[in-house]
Design goal:
The complex is a heterodimer of chains A (478) and B (537).
Chain A (H helix, E strand, L loop, with lengths): L5 H19 L3 H25 L7 E2 L4 E2 L1 H28 L5 H19 L3 H19 L6 H32 L4 H10 L5 H18 L8 H7 L2 H25 L6 H22 L5 H20 L14 H26 L12 H4 L1 H15 L5 H15 L5 H24 L12 H19 L2 H11 L1
Antiparallel strand pairs in A: 1-2
Helix pairs in contact in A: 1-2, 1-4, 2-3, 2-4, 3-4, 3-10, 3-13, 4-5, 4-10, 5-6, 5-10, 6-8, 6-9, 8-10, 9-12, 10-12, 10-13, 11-12, 11-17, 12-13, 12-17, 13-15, 13-16, 13-18, 13-19, 15-17, 15-18, 16-18
Chain B lengths: L1 H19 L6 H23 L10 E3 L2 E3 L4 E2 L2 E3 L1 H24 L4 H20 L3 H10 L1 H11 L4 H34 L6 H4 L9 H15 L8 H8 L2 H26 L1 H27 L4 H20 L4 H32 L10 H4 L1 H14 L6 H16 L1 H26 L5 H7 L8 H7 L2 H13 L7 H19 L2 H19 L14
Antiparallel strand pairs in B: 1-4, 2-3
Classes of the chains: A mainly alpha (478), B mainly alpha (537).
């Protein structure tokens, strides 16, 4: 048993304790603290793993899971996001949920455990089990709010569509198993180098798995669910869905792409290329005229993952102009963490605003709640990729990587999509600037102010002085 | 740290101004004024302690690691060209403050904060020597400018602010792609990964892509300049922006485009710039003529001045792509003179709008009777902008035409017809607003609430009887002429233009060495030209 399992074990223990506590005595406070303790210990053990051993010694794998410095960092990112959302969960639940607040924490931990498993999975069995653990928890999280019919509807939508996606994935896994006789990623990677990978059946299997992952990432042909669910679900669930679930799914997609030599499969490449371009453009176009900020974030997340797909083309691509073979991986890690940190910030700001759903509710926010408005504007500018924010550095890395690998063709689409994107990010800021009469607003608590400043400082300081962050990522990847 | 201080001072001043509104309503504007003055004093002290006029280039030069992963440095440097433009920035910053002093009454703290941040961004643009740092400043200065237009602008401010931002951002993204492509290709050729201007400039890239990379830069800069097909944001932004923002926009922000062409496009892409030169000169010619014709047909004073900017900046573009010492000198001079004359015109329009609540030429007229001082100033700057000898604009246009004629006579001939057109629209503006029938008095009443909506209706029913009745009312309604502060600001700007017109040599001495360097880089692939004479005017 390796120390690598410690975070997952901690989460497991927290889940079990929480179950018992809920059965014995319902107390929101207690559930909150148990969850917090679980998350903090898990995060701490993960960090200490990164700290204690030499980075190259972090590699460890067995049949089902494999760990590397990359997976450790991704897990830290994941746990960090969970902790940040957990910090604000207490006040939010007190305000918005009448009864049964404790189970939310349970589902949060389960979803987190599932995502953690997906990040380190090395075998189709472990991957699929973690995925289902995460997806089913999300069904509960999305349909959590009993008072709101929208939330129930969103939950059922997610359940059905996610089941369909899982079915596709299972079918794909079965087809690949039929071809190769193994479910291990490692075996597939080695085996595919020798045999001809472009057999029809194999390609179909890959596409089936891809469809499942595209659904989880809400990329373009499989994106129709995302806006309704973002709008219907309780806000913390939306935040988790758009960060945790997408992070885990993208990591799996990257792993499959990285290991499986899909780079040589022209059909799959064309497919991914089309999905990337369509996601960039359609995601931003759909967001243009939305009137709900959650729908805007939903569609913008489509386009952001569209940008990220560009990076998949760079792996195993032999046209490196910068003599820097790990650079695409660095760019991937940078963009992913930049986007997820910014998005978590956006959601936690929205959780602090009372009428968060429609864009009109934000009218004149600059004059009634300047700090909230300023932080939301900075987050929007970061999503749009304006310099001095984290989002810009992410975009800079991404563009540098793809230019240095001579994958130029997606870049015009990226420019067009970014300009379209700017339009609606600015629209959010514009709405907050309008209407100069000041409304009465409740004073913010110290914790609220502190977390808003934390978001501003994080996004701005990592965007302005990215040297340390960039070096960390380099040492992790390299 | 000396140059960093130049950027950091207004940055911190902006935060102070934002915060100080809690202390006192008037504190932000004093902080802004003091901060700009301190920065100006600091700039001049740098100039005095380091002799920039020497042959030695890049006198104050401070590289410092910023993102070591990709060898990006925070590298600021200043030479004569940047010094002159920084001086313009800060002086025009003061002019803008003077016009903001009584005009801005809402959210003062945030206004002056944004104002100072814009200045900080512009100062950064003129100092940055690392391409990525340059790009960061280039983009960042837009955000506070966007707020200035979107919050304190006129009726249609949101649309204008959005258009301004989208145009410049689209250009900026192209530039980002070009910067990265340039660095990557440079690395491929030399094995040095650097975003530093001085490293990149030593070995211009040889690649088929160079043309397109060059075009990316050029588009970003001529969007900002703005030249003909990309100019549509300018009239909207100028019309809708509050007067201080208009002044900064016209006097300094447009100049960053010209500066970019001079500093980056010409030295980094000597061959590609030659390749694009005919196209760019055509665009410059079209801008000059088209801007002038459009200016002629405007009835809104601010739009008129905005289109005249398009026309004048066409000369800068023409000068840059003439690859000729005189033309480059003329381009720099044009940037300075245009900065002064146009911002003065915007300030005057702002003053007129403040008094009569309209900018419509059809509603103005005979201002000379009511506001003799303001009208005299208007006459002066109108005449300056049409290029009257004795003013800076004349020197600038003369030099550009001289240089362009050497390189491409046809373009020079086309462009010189712009001078005639400039006279036409400037005189029309002067004629309609300051002379003629005294129409303004009625508008001061009827347009108080709806400044623009009623523009057309009013014309029809402004019969003589109505006018006579309103003339009587005029005596009860008091309209003041220029205040001492406004008068002083405008007088100083007059003086500046006259000095530039009569004794431009000190400015040329400052920028000559920078221009020589640029020219030597661009002409190395060509045959060496006959020894350059310094222009003594």
């Amino acid at each position: 048993m390796s120390l690598h399992y410690l975070p997952a074990i901690t989460l497991n223990i927290a889940i079990l304790v929480l179950l018992l506590v809920i059965a014995l005595k319902r107390s929101h406070q207690l559930a909150f603290y148990i969850t917090g303790a679980g998350l903090f210990i898990a995060c701490f053990s993960q960090c200490s793993l990164l700290r204690a051993s030499h980075l190259s010694e972090l590699h460890f794998s067995d049949e089902l899971f494999s760990f590397s410095s990359m997976s450790v960092v991704l897990s830290v990112l994941l746990l960090g996001i969970l902790i940040f959302i957990w910090l604000q969960l207490h006040t939010w639940l007190e305000k918005h949920e009448a009864n049964h607040k404790e189970e939310f924490y349970l589902l949060l931990l389960l979803a987190g455990l599932g995502a953690l498993g997906m990040i380190v999975s090395e075998h189709f069995a472990s991957f699929f089990l973690s995925l289902e653990l995460m997806s089913l928890s999300f069904v509960g999280l999305i349909a959590y709010s009993q008072s709101q019919p929208n939330s129930q509807e969103a939950g059922i939508k997610y359940l059905i569509l996610s089941a369909v996606a899982s079915a596709f994935m299972l079918m794909g896994i079965a087809i690949i198993y039929l071809q190769t006789g193994s479910l291990s990623f490692q075996y597939l990677a080695e085996n595919l180098n020798n045999t001809t990978p472009s057999s029809m059946l194999f390609t179909i299997g890959l596409i089936f798995i891809l469809i499942g992952l595209l659904f989880k990432l809400s990329l373009v042909p499989c994106h129709l669910w995302v806006a309704d669910i973002f709008e219907g679900a309780p806000l913390p669930s939306t935040a988790l869905l758009s960060t945790v679930s997408k992070l885990a799914s993208f990591v799996v997609l990257w792993k499959l792409f990285h290991l499986g030599n899909w780079q040589e499969n022209q059909v799959v490449l064309t497919l991914i290329g089309m999905v990337a371009v369509a996601s960039m453009l359609i995601g931003n176009l759909l967001a243009l005229l939305q009137n709900s900020i959650l729908r805007i974030l939903a569609f913008s997340s489509i386009s952001h993952f569209g940008y990220l797909l560009i990076l998949l083309f760079l792996f195993n691509h032999n046209a490196d102009l910068l003599d820097n073979p790990t650079f695409p991986l660095e760019a991937l890690l940078f963009y992913l963490s930049a986007y997820l940190i910014t998005l978590t910030g956006a959601f936690s700001i929205l959780m602090k605003l009372e009428e968060e759903k429609s864009l009109e509710a934000l009218t004149g926010l600059f004059w009634s709640k300047p700090l909230h408005a300023a932080s939301l504007s900075i987050v929007m500018l970061s999503l749009a990729g304006i310099p001095l924010t984290l989002g810009f550095m992410g975009k800079f890395y991404l563009v540098t990587a793809s230019i240095s690998y001579q994958v130029i063709w997606p870049l015009p689409f990226l420019v067009i999509a970014s300009v379209i994107g700017l339009f609606f990010y600015l629209r959010v800021i514009m709405v907050m600037l309008s209407s100069t009469q000041t409304r009465h607003s409740s004073p913010s608590t110290a914790g609220e102010v502190a977390s808003l400043w934390f978001i501003i400082l994080l996004v701005m300081s990592l965007g302005t002085f990215p040297a340390l962050f960039a070096d960390t990522i380099k040492s992790v990847v390299g | 740290m000396m140059l960093f201080t130049l950027v950091i001072l207004p940055l911190i001043g902006g935060f102070l101004a934002c915060w100080s509104q809690r202390v006192h309503q008037d504190a932000p504007k004093w902080i802004a004024a003091i901060c700009t003055l301190v920065t100006l004093a600091f700039l001049i002290s740098i100039k005095l302690t380091n002799n920039i006029e020497n042959l030695e280039l890049w006198l104050v030069d401070e590289p410092r690691a910023w993102i070591p992963r990709l060898n990006i440095t925070a590298h600021l440097a200043m030479d004569g060209l940047s010094f002159v433009l920084l001086l313009l920035t800060l002086l025009m910053g003061l002019v803008g403050l003077s016009s903001a002093w009584s005009e801005i009454n809402q959210h003062k703290g945030f206004f002056y904060g944004n104002y100072l941040w814009t200045l900080a961004g512009i100062i950064g643009v003129f100092l940055a020597m690392d391409l990525l740092l340059f790009f960061v400043f280039w983009e960042v200065m837009l955000v506070p400018m966007y707020f200035l237009i979107a919050i304190w602008g006129n009726e249609n401010r949101r649309y204008a602010a959005l258009k301004f931002f989208l145009f410049t951002q689209a250009g900026g993204l192209l530039m980002l792609l070009s910067i990265i492509a340039l660095t990557v290709i440079h690395y491929q050729q030399t094995g040095i990964l650097s975003f530093d201007y001085q490293v990149l400039v030593q070995s211009p890239i040889q690649s088929e892509l160079a043309k397109w990379i060059c075009l990316g830069f050029i588009i970003a800069f001529i969007v900002k300049l703005p030249a003909f097909p990309f100019h549509t944001w300018l009239p909207d932004a100028h019309t809708q922006a509050p007067t201080p923002a208009s002044i900064i926009l016209a006097a300094v922000l447009l100049k960053t485009g010209g500066y970019g062409l001079l500093r980056f496009v010409l030295p980094l892409f000597p061959e590609s710039a030659q390749f694009w030169a005919p196209l760019m000169m055509t665009l410059a010619g079209v801008s000059i003529i088209y801007g002038a014709i459009m200016a002629f047909s405007q009835t809104d004073l601010k739009r008129l001045v905005a289109y005249s900017s398009v026309s004048h900046m066409g000369f800068v573009l023409l000068g840059c792509f003439s690859f000729n010492f005189y033309a480059l000198q003329g381009a720099v001079m044009q940037m300075l003179a245009h900065g002064l004359s146009t911002s003065a015109l915007f300030m005057l329009v702002g003053l007129i709008q403040h008094r009569f609540h309209t900018r419509d030429l059809n509603h103005l007229g005979g201002l000379w009777h009511t506001l003799p001082k303001l009208s005299a100033m208007g006459l002066f700057f109108g005449v300056a902008s049409l290029g009257m000898p004795g003013m800076g604009n004349f020197i600038a246009e003369l030099l550009v035409l001289l240089g362009a004629f050497k390189q491409a006579p046809i373009f020079a001939i086309v462009a010189s017809s712009g001078l005639i057109l400039a006279a036409v629209y400037s005189l029309r503006m002067i004629q309609k607003s300051f002379f003629g029938m005294n129409l303004n008095l009625e508008t001061s009443f009827s347009d108080k609430k709806s400044s623009d909506n009623s523009s057309k209706n009013d014309l029809d029913n402004s019969s003589a009887g109505l006018r006579a009745k309103r003339l009587n009312d005029a005596h009860t309604h008091h309209i003041t002429d220029l205040s001492v502060k406004e008068g002083l600001t405008l007088m100083l700007m007059c003086l500046g233009l006259i000095i530039m017109g009569l004794h431009p040599q000190p400015i040329f001495t400052l920028v000559n060495s920078s221009l020589m360097e640029i020219l030597s880089l661009i002409q190395s692939p060509l045959q060496p030209e006959s020894p350059l004479l310094e222009v003594q005017l």
